[in-house]
Amino acid sequence: MKSAVLVAGAGLLLSALPVLAHHSFAAEFDSTKPIEVKGTVTAMDWVNPHSHLRFDVKAEDGTIQHWSAECLPPNGLYRQGWRKTSVKAGDEVIVKGFKAKDGANYMWTQSVTTADGRRLFAGSPEGPGGPGGPGGPGGGAPKE
Q: In terms of pTM, does the model score above 0.85?
């Protein structure tokens, strides 16, 4: 009986870890630093609390920079029209969003444009980068 309670308690604690990792837009990203980056997809991580698009960018000096673009969780992307086949390793993409405050090759994603011209929104409909929200096609800078 004691071991069952202990296992259940440990499970509850572990399930809370993703919530602890969650943060606000303003805590990590700079709404005054919109950015557009062209690269080649290396992976799309469909995970909670936020999905991540990973891609490589060829710098002017020829070196390869590894980038990560934070997106909505999988359910949010799905509601925006994304599917697991929307972007895949090797695809050329243009990612628009807002750069990380610490200057790292990390950003919040507003939208992703594929080589064939499809534009996928990656922000919440009412939030930064969403089709109807601040920073989206009809909005201004995201609110902090």
A: no
